[in-house]
Specification:
single chain, four-stranded mixed beta sheet, elongated, 7 helices, about 35% helix, alpha+beta
């Protein structure tokens, strides 16, 4: 890499009093989001004079490539945009200034692959993975002809755009699935025992129970079908709490597992059905 970018280095952190409300945009690793610079996220500025003197080594310009060297995770990279004429960064970021500006997109594309991480012995302690500036200089990078570089980068950009669309669709689908699951659980468990599922957390509304709890300690940690064989018709909440899936310490994951098994027994195995009494389940 140092054959292509002789000036490879990292930034540093100025004293607190050198940070201002305006001036030179100062980057931290958290400003590299989704492999782009997101300066709207916790933006910071550094004094212009300090930038040109003490931080002169790490002056950045549009088109430079930056990469985080302190993780986890490693592999964050971005091209400096032209929203400001000059930028600066802290010591957790290394920068690459190619001799030929035309290859900056290629360097960025290569770093996105994270292939270089397979050939670097990382250093660090206390759960941190670090890449030294020296190792950043010695990253081996293939250099195809410029037209091939452009074509590869173009194909990758199209693929990444497609991945972003698919990711958004998956997130929407996941949200809709959670809403559907929530409505089914409300129907089965009843509003007085409404379990809200989402974001790996569970909350319970504490309302007065309107029915008598049926709990048989002799049929706990059992499969749903076996519990119903012994106890007959059960309310969904009682069946859940006696099942092998119940975990008071992690009710969110527990209700998900219960729902998945119940769905299987109702739709695929055809062994359990909803009773005519709302919220109750019984064997077919």
């Amino acid at each position: 890499m140092q054959d292509l970018c002789p000036n490879i280095s990292s930034g540093s952190t100025p004293p607190r009093n050198e940070f201002k409300n305006e001036g030179i945009p100062y980057l931290k690793v958290y400003n590299i989001r989704n492999q782009k610079i997101d300066f709207k996220y916790k933006s910071q500025f550094v004094n212009n004079e300090y930038h040109l003197t003490k931080l002169k080594r790490s002056v950045l310009h549009p088109g430079d490539i930056v990469m985080n060297i302190v993780g986890p995770p490693l592999g964050k990279t971005a091209i400096i945009p032209d929203s400001f004429d000059e930028w600066n960064c802290n010591q957790a970021i290394v920068f690459f200034k190619p001799l030929v500006r035309e290859i900056n997109q290629w360097i960025y594309t290569f770093l996105l692959s994270e292939d270089y991480l397979k050939r670097i012995v990382l250093v660090g302690s206390a759960g941190q993975d670090n890449i030294s500036v020296t190792k950043s200089k010695n990253i081996e990078i293939p250099l195809p002809p410029i037209e091939e570089q452009k074509e590869i980068a173009n194909i990758l950009n199209k693929s990444l755009a497609m991945c972003n669309v698919l990711e958004e669709e998956i997130m929407v689908s996941k949200a809709n699935t959670e809403k559907l699951m929530q409505s089914i659980l409300i129907k089965l468990l009843g509003k007085e025992n409404n379990v809200l599922v989402g974001n790996n957390s569970t909350k319970k509304e504490t309302k007065k129970t309107l029915r008598k709890i049926k709990y048989n300690s002799k049929t706990v940690n059992m499969k749903l079908v076996d519990i119903l064989k012994v106890n007959g018709k059960l309310h969904a909440e009682d069946l859940w709490k006696m099942s092998e899936h119940y975990n008071e310490a992690n009710e969110g994951e527990s209700i998900d597992q219960f729902y998945a098994e119940l769905k299987k027994q109702i739709e695929h195995e055809k062994k359990i059905k909803e009773s005519s009494d709302k919220g109750y389940l019984e064997l077919i």
